[in-house]
Amino acid sequence: MSIDSKEMSHPHYRGEDAKDFHIGQSHETLHRVYNTWTVKVGITDDEDRNVVLYSTVFDVGGPMMLIYSTIIVTVGQCLMMSSLAELCSVWPYAGGQQAFTKYLAPQRIRRFLSYLVGWVVLLGEIATVCGCSMNSAQIIASVVSIHQPTFVPETWSTYLMFVALTVLSLLFCFSQKHLPAIAVLGGIITLGGGLAWAISFLILAPKQTASFVFTNFINNSGYASNAWVGFMSFYTPIYALYGTDGILHIAEEMRDATKSAPRAM
Protein backbone atom coordinates (compact mmCIF):
# COMPACT_ATOMS: atom_id res chain seq x y z
CA MET A 1 0.00 0.00 0.00
CA SER A 2 1.42 3.37 -0.99
CA ILE A 3 1.78 5.95 1.75
CA ASP A 4 1.27 9.60 1.03
CA SER A 5 4.50 11.56 1.30
CA LYS A 6 2.82 14.16 3.49
CA GLU A 7 1.86 11.51 6.02
CA MET A 8 5.32 9.96 5.85
CA SER A 9 6.87 13.31 6.73
CA HIS A 10 4.71 13.74 9.83
CA PRO A 11 7.02 13.76 12.91
CA HIS A 12 4.88 11.22 14.76
CA TYR A 13 4.54 8.75 11.87
CA ARG A 14 7.60 7.06 10.47
CA GLY A 15 7.83 3.62 8.89
CA GLU A 16 5.18 1.28 10.25
CA ASP A 17 3.60 4.09 12.27
CA ALA A 18 2.98 6.01 9.05
CA LYS A 19 1.34 2.91 7.60
CA ASP A 20 -0.97 2.60 10.60
CA PHE A 21 -1.90 6.26 10.28
CA HIS A 22 -2.71 5.89 6.59
CA ILE A 23 -4.85 2.78 7.01
CA GLY A 24 -6.81 4.32 9.84
CA GLN A 25 -7.55 7.43 7.73
CA SER A 26 -7.22 9.47 10.91
CA HIS A 27 -6.49 13.17 11.04
CA GLU A 28 -5.62 13.20 14.73
CA THR A 29 -2.11 13.60 16.11
CA LEU A 30 -1.40 10.36 17.95
CA HIS A 31 1.41 10.53 20.48
CA ARG A 32 2.94 7.07 20.42
CA VAL A 33 4.68 6.76 23.78
CA TYR A 34 4.48 3.02 24.56
CA ASN A 35 6.45 0.03 23.32
CA THR A 36 6.19 -3.71 23.91
CA TRP A 37 7.74 -3.72 27.38
CA THR A 38 6.08 -0.62 28.82
CA VAL A 39 2.66 -1.94 27.81
CA LYS A 40 3.46 -5.41 29.13
CA VAL A 41 4.39 -4.06 32.55
CA GLY A 42 1.36 -1.79 32.64
CA ILE A 43 -1.09 -4.58 31.80
CA THR A 44 0.49 -7.30 33.97
CA ASP A 45 -1.20 -7.29 37.37
CA ASP A 46 -1.87 -11.02 37.73
CA GLU A 47 -0.29 -11.31 41.17
CA ASP A 48 -2.36 -8.40 42.50
CA ARG A 49 -5.61 -9.98 41.40
CA ASN A 50 -4.58 -13.32 42.90
CA VAL A 51 -4.02 -11.61 46.25
CA VAL A 52 -7.51 -10.10 46.08
CA LEU A 53 -9.10 -13.55 45.82
CA TYR A 54 -6.79 -15.48 48.14
CA SER A 55 -9.47 -15.92 50.79
CA THR A 56 -11.67 -17.53 48.13
CA VAL A 57 -8.96 -19.94 47.00
CA PHE A 58 -8.84 -21.80 50.30
CA ASP A 59 -12.58 -22.45 50.30
CA VAL A 60 -13.03 -23.63 46.71
CA GLY A 61 -10.44 -26.24 45.85
CA GLY A 62 -7.45 -25.00 47.79
CA PRO A 63 -3.90 -24.57 46.46
CA MET A 64 -4.25 -27.72 44.35
CA MET A 65 -7.07 -26.32 42.24
CA LEU A 66 -5.42 -22.89 42.09
CA ILE A 67 -2.39 -24.46 40.40
CA TYR A 68 -4.24 -26.72 37.97
CA SER A 69 -6.96 -24.21 37.08
CA THR A 70 -4.29 -21.56 36.45
CA ILE A 71 -2.50 -23.86 34.00
CA ILE A 72 -5.73 -24.58 32.10
CA VAL A 73 -6.84 -20.93 32.02
CA THR A 74 -3.36 -19.82 30.92
CA VAL A 75 -3.41 -22.18 27.94
CA GLY A 76 -6.87 -20.97 26.91
CA GLN A 77 -5.91 -17.33 27.37
CA CYS A 78 -2.76 -17.77 25.28
CA LEU A 79 -4.80 -19.27 22.44
CA MET A 80 -7.30 -16.43 22.55
CA MET A 81 -4.58 -13.75 22.71
CA SER A 82 -2.77 -15.38 19.77
CA SER A 83 -5.92 -15.03 17.69
CA LEU A 84 -6.49 -11.41 18.71
CA ALA A 85 -2.80 -10.59 18.24
CA GLU A 86 -2.92 -11.79 14.65
CA LEU A 87 -5.87 -9.51 13.96
CA CYS A 88 -4.17 -6.64 15.77
CA SER A 89 -1.12 -7.00 13.52
CA VAL A 90 -3.39 -6.20 10.56
CA TRP A 91 -5.71 -3.62 12.17
CA PRO A 92 -3.94 -2.00 15.16
CA TYR A 93 -6.85 0.21 16.19
CA ALA A 94 -8.10 1.20 19.63
CA GLY A 95 -11.52 -0.20 18.75
CA GLY A 96 -10.06 -3.70 18.98
CA GLN A 97 -12.78 -6.30 18.60
CA GLN A 98 -15.19 -3.70 17.26
CA ALA A 99 -12.81 -2.86 14.41
CA PHE A 100 -12.16 -6.54 13.67
CA THR A 101 -15.91 -7.15 13.43
CA LYS A 102 -16.30 -4.21 11.08
CA TYR A 103 -13.70 -5.56 8.66
CA LEU A 104 -14.49 -9.28 8.86
CA ALA A 105 -18.27 -9.54 9.25
CA PRO A 106 -20.55 -9.86 6.20
CA GLN A 107 -21.26 -6.45 4.74
CA ARG A 108 -25.01 -6.74 5.28
CA ILE A 109 -24.74 -7.02 9.06
CA ARG A 110 -21.31 -5.59 9.83
CA ARG A 111 -22.64 -2.26 11.13
CA PHE A 112 -25.05 -3.92 13.54
CA LEU A 113 -22.50 -6.47 14.76
CA SER A 114 -19.78 -3.84 15.12
CA TYR A 115 -22.16 -1.65 17.12
CA LEU A 116 -23.15 -4.60 19.31
CA VAL A 117 -19.55 -5.73 19.92
CA GLY A 118 -18.51 -2.16 20.72
CA TRP A 119 -21.13 -1.90 23.44
CA VAL A 120 -20.25 -5.32 24.86
CA VAL A 121 -16.57 -4.31 25.07
CA LEU A 122 -17.47 -0.99 26.69
CA LEU A 123 -19.73 -2.63 29.27
CA GLY A 124 -16.97 -5.14 30.01
CA GLU A 125 -14.50 -2.32 30.61
CA ILE A 126 -16.97 -0.54 32.90
CA ALA A 127 -17.53 -3.77 34.84
CA THR A 128 -13.76 -4.24 35.13
CA VAL A 129 -13.26 -0.77 36.59
CA CYS A 130 -16.12 -1.25 39.05
CA GLY A 131 -14.91 -4.71 40.05
CA CYS A 132 -11.38 -3.48 40.73
CA SER A 133 -12.71 -0.50 42.70
CA MET A 134 -14.95 -2.70 44.84
CA ASN A 135 -12.17 -5.18 45.57
CA SER A 136 -9.80 -2.34 46.45
CA ALA A 137 -12.40 -0.82 48.78
CA GLN A 138 -12.85 -4.15 50.56
CA ILE A 139 -9.08 -4.57 50.91
CA ILE A 140 -8.73 -1.07 52.39
CA ALA A 141 -11.51 -1.80 54.88
CA SER A 142 -9.87 -5.12 55.83
CA VAL A 143 -6.45 -3.53 56.37
CA VAL A 144 -7.97 -0.85 58.59
CA SER A 145 -9.81 -3.55 60.57
CA ILE A 146 -6.56 -5.44 61.14
CA HIS A 147 -4.77 -2.38 62.54
CA GLN A 148 -7.83 -0.97 64.33
CA PRO A 149 -9.78 -3.91 65.82
CA THR A 150 -12.52 -1.55 67.03
CA PHE A 151 -13.30 -0.51 63.45
CA VAL A 152 -16.16 -2.44 61.89
CA PRO A 153 -16.56 -1.67 58.18
CA GLU A 154 -20.13 -0.82 57.31
CA THR A 155 -21.75 -1.25 53.94
CA TRP A 156 -22.06 2.50 53.44
CA SER A 157 -18.37 3.16 54.20
CA THR A 158 -17.23 0.46 51.78
CA TYR A 159 -19.56 1.89 49.16
CA LEU A 160 -18.18 5.41 49.61
CA MET A 161 -14.63 4.09 49.15
CA PHE A 162 -15.80 2.26 46.04
CA VAL A 163 -17.29 5.47 44.62
CA ALA A 164 -14.13 7.45 45.43
CA LEU A 165 -11.86 4.92 43.73
CA THR A 166 -14.13 4.74 40.67
CA VAL A 167 -14.20 8.53 40.32
CA LEU A 168 -10.41 8.60 40.69
CA SER A 169 -10.02 6.17 37.79
CA LEU A 170 -12.38 8.27 35.67
CA LEU A 171 -10.30 11.39 36.31
CA PHE A 172 -7.37 9.74 34.52
CA CYS A 173 -9.40 9.91 31.31
CA PHE A 174 -9.27 13.72 31.45
CA SER A 175 -5.54 13.93 32.11
CA GLN A 176 -4.09 12.53 28.90
CA LYS A 177 -0.90 14.57 29.26
CA HIS A 178 -0.03 12.73 32.47
CA LEU A 179 -1.22 9.25 31.46
CA PRO A 180 2.28 7.94 30.51
CA ALA A 181 3.66 8.98 33.92
CA ILE A 182 0.66 7.44 35.67
CA ALA A 183 1.19 4.23 33.69
CA VAL A 184 4.86 4.11 34.74
CA LEU A 185 3.91 4.66 38.38
CA GLY A 186 1.30 1.92 38.13
CA GLY A 187 3.86 -0.45 36.62
CA ILE A 188 6.32 0.24 39.45
CA ILE A 189 3.65 -0.34 42.09
CA THR A 190 2.50 -3.53 40.35
CA LEU A 191 5.97 -5.06 40.08
CA GLY A 192 7.07 -3.85 43.51
CA GLY A 193 3.86 -5.03 45.14
CA GLY A 194 4.12 -8.41 43.44
CA LEU A 195 7.67 -8.92 44.69
CA ALA A 196 6.76 -7.78 48.21
CA TRP A 197 3.78 -10.13 48.24
CA ALA A 198 5.81 -13.13 47.03
CA ILE A 199 8.74 -12.52 49.40
CA SER A 200 6.45 -11.96 52.40
CA PHE A 201 4.55 -15.16 51.75
CA LEU A 202 7.73 -17.20 51.29
CA ILE A 203 9.21 -15.93 54.55
CA LEU A 204 6.20 -15.57 56.85
CA ALA A 205 3.62 -18.10 55.68
CA PRO A 206 3.52 -21.53 57.39
CA LYS A 207 4.96 -24.25 55.20
CA GLN A 208 2.96 -27.22 53.91
CA THR A 209 3.94 -30.51 52.35
CA ALA A 210 4.02 -31.05 48.59
CA SER A 211 1.17 -33.54 48.86
CA PHE A 212 -1.01 -30.87 50.51
CA VAL A 213 -0.26 -28.36 47.77
CA PHE A 214 -0.69 -30.66 44.77
CA THR A 215 -3.17 -33.35 45.86
CA ASN A 216 -5.33 -32.04 48.72
CA PHE A 217 -8.74 -30.83 47.50
CA ILE A 218 -10.46 -28.42 49.90
CA ASN A 219 -14.21 -27.77 49.91
CA ASN A 220 -15.33 -25.27 52.54
CA SER A 221 -17.84 -23.61 50.22
CA GLY A 222 -20.97 -25.30 51.53
CA TYR A 223 -21.65 -27.03 48.20
CA ALA A 224 -21.85 -30.81 48.28
CA SER A 225 -20.57 -31.31 44.73
CA ASN A 226 -16.79 -31.26 44.48
CA ALA A 227 -17.10 -31.03 40.70
CA TRP A 228 -19.04 -27.78 41.01
CA VAL A 229 -16.51 -26.42 43.49
CA GLY A 230 -13.75 -27.37 41.07
CA PHE A 231 -15.42 -25.27 38.39
CA MET A 232 -15.75 -22.40 40.86
CA SER A 233 -12.00 -22.51 41.48
CA PHE A 234 -11.45 -21.28 37.92
CA TYR A 235 -12.76 -17.87 38.93
CA THR A 236 -9.46 -16.84 40.53
CA PRO A 237 -7.15 -17.42 37.52
CA ILE A 238 -9.79 -16.08 35.12
CA TYR A 239 -9.99 -12.89 37.18
CA ALA A 240 -6.20 -12.70 37.29
CA LEU A 241 -5.65 -13.21 33.56
CA TYR A 242 -8.62 -11.52 31.91
CA GLY A 243 -8.23 -8.04 30.48
CA THR A 244 -5.10 -8.79 28.47
CA ASP A 245 -7.01 -7.60 25.42
CA GLY A 246 -6.62 -4.14 26.96
CA ILE A 247 -3.46 -3.82 24.88
CA LEU A 248 -5.69 -3.63 21.81
CA HIS A 249 -7.33 -0.48 23.08
CA ILE A 250 -4.08 1.46 23.42
CA ALA A 251 -2.52 0.18 20.19
CA GLU A 252 -2.76 3.63 18.63
CA GLU A 253 -0.51 4.92 21.42
CA MET A 254 2.22 2.35 20.72
CA ARG A 255 5.26 2.77 18.52
CA ASP A 256 5.28 0.34 15.59
CA ALA A 257 1.91 -0.95 16.75
CA THR A 258 1.54 -3.67 14.11
CA LYS A 259 4.47 -5.50 15.74
CA SER A 260 4.68 -4.15 19.30
CA ALA A 261 1.04 -4.73 20.26
CA PRO A 262 0.91 -8.41 19.15
CA ARG A 263 4.23 -9.11 20.88
CA ALA A 264 3.00 -7.62 24.13
CA MET A 265 -0.22 -9.62 23.95
TrEMBL record:
GO annotation, cellular component aspect: membrane
Superkingdom in the source lineage: Eukaryota
Membrane topology designation: Multi-pass membrane protein
Species: Fusarium kuroshium
Annotated TM spans: 112-136, 156-174, 181-203, 223-242
Pfam family, one: AA_permease_2
Keyword Transport: yes
Subcellular localization(s) per the UniProt record: Membrane
Keyword Transport: yes
A molecular-function term among this protein's GO annotations: transmembrane transporter activity
PANTHER family: AMINO-ACID PERMEASE BAT1, GABA PERMEASE
Keyword annotations from UniProtKB, A to Z: Membrane, Transmembrane, Transmembrane helix, Transport
Family annotation (Gene3D superfamilies): Amino acid/polyamine transporter I
Identification of the protein by name: Amino acid permease/ SLC12A domain-containing protein
